[in-house]
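PROTEIN DESIGN WORKSHEET
SECTION A - STRUCTURE
LENGTH: 142
TOKENS:
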């Protein structure tokens, strides 16, 4: 009598050869290249595992799986924050381009857009390389 191993489980599969999908799978499994794939069993395990990983997060099993903390929905506030950041970055870039064009094609180093939070005491402290007129025109554009 064969000794039963406690760490092995069996799952049976039945194929109906009248079904085209079943016939296709049967044909592949019958002629599987074992030089590439370790065994038919390992091939089926790998295929099932790949499919299961692809479906991860869906209602694949009956038990409730805890939601991943990394996966969360984006809120309207998040979208608004992203929109503001993009707008501010675009304004900075356009001010630099405009300032450069007004300065005769020379590239000038522009400070960050001035807000109430980051207003400097005076322009000399920041080391701005443009005259006051150019800065005034470029700042009023944004």
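SECTION B - SEQUENCE
RESIDUE ASSIGNMENT:
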């Amino acid at each position: 009598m064969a000794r039963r191993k406690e760490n092995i489980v069996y799952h049976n599969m039945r194929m109906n050869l009248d079904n085209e999908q079943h016939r296709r799978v049967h044909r592949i499994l019958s002629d599987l290249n074992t030089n590439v794939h370790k065994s038919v069993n390992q091939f089926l395990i790998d295929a099932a595992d790949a499919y299961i990983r692809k479906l991860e997060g869906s209602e694949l099993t009956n038990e409730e799986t805890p939601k991943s903390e990394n996966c969360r929905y984006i809120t309207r506030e998040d979208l608004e924050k992203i929109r503001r950041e993009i707008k501010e970055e675009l304004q900075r870039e356009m001010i630099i381009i405009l300032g450069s064009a007004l300065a005769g094609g020379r590239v000038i180093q522009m400070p960050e857009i001035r807000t109430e939070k980051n207003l400097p005491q005076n322009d000399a402290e920041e080391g701005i390389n443009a005259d006051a007129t150019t800065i005034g025109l470029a700042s009023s554009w944004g």
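SECTION C - NOTES
The chain has two domains: 20-54, 76-141.
The chain has five helices and no strands.
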